[in-house]
Specification:
By secondary structure, the chain is mainly alpha-helical. The chain has one domain (8-172). It has helices at residues 8-11, 16-35, 42-70, 93-120, 126-140, 143-148, 166-172; strands at 76-80, 88-92. The longest helix has 29 residues, at 42-70. It starts with 7 loop residues before the first helix and ends in a 7-residue tail after the last helix. The model has no long low-confidence stretch (mean pLDDT 76).
């Protein structure tokens, strides 16, 4: 009996096309701008940053509204309590997804405000533009956004709640799966 080949990126839910787009397309666009002599002036950088901020806020708002309208209050999930103790609590899937969206929103908006403050202080570089462009693409890859906004199949292992934390995902990519 042969073993079944399992692609770790597919197992974790990071599709190859989505990963390529988020990690390579934006830097390639900046390289192309520099190669063809397109100068990123202050006004262009501000326009790009504002467009990315609008996309980010709109994505989070629509995802949050879809989580609220899902009404998934019958099924529950057991998660650790946020205070850091070893106790666990049982909450509905809707409440769990609402917490995930609010955590994603707070971390994304902090990163966006940081980039904006660096931009307004005069440290304008292509890296700030790159961060502003990559921020919405990383939000598009979040499990809760993929589940509610992109409506991916919730039975996939990567979309099972509670979602795995990032360090656990990185380790799982290199550990062979038992067949």
């Amino acid at each position: 009996m042969g073993t079944r080949h399992v692609d770790p990126s597919r197992e974790l839910g990071v599709d190859a096309v989505r990963s390529w787009r988020a990690r390579a397309l934006a830097p390639l666009a900046l390289i192309a701008c520099n190669a063809f002599g397109i100068v990123l002036t202050q006004s262009r950088i501000r326009t790009i940053a504002l467009a990315c901020a609008h996309i980010l806020v709109l994505t989070l708002a629509v995802t949050y509204s879809r989580v609220r309208s899902s009404g998934d209050t019958m099924r529950t999930v057991v998660v650790p309590v946020a205070d850091g103790s070893d106790t666990k609590e049982e909450i509905t899937l809707m409440e769990y997804d609402r917490r995930c969206v609010s955590q994603l929103a707070s971390s994304s908006l902090v990163a966006l405000v940081t980039a904006w403050l660096l931009h307004t202080s005069g440290w304008t570089t292509n890296l700030l533009v790159l961060q502003c462009v990559l921020l919405p693409t990383s939000v598009f890859d979040a499990e809760v956004v993929r589940l509610h906004l992109w409506r991916e199949d919730p039975s996939r292992l990567c979309l099972q709640r509670p979602f795995r934390p990032e360090p656990e995902k990185l380790v799982a990519a290199y550990v062979p799966r038992a067949v």
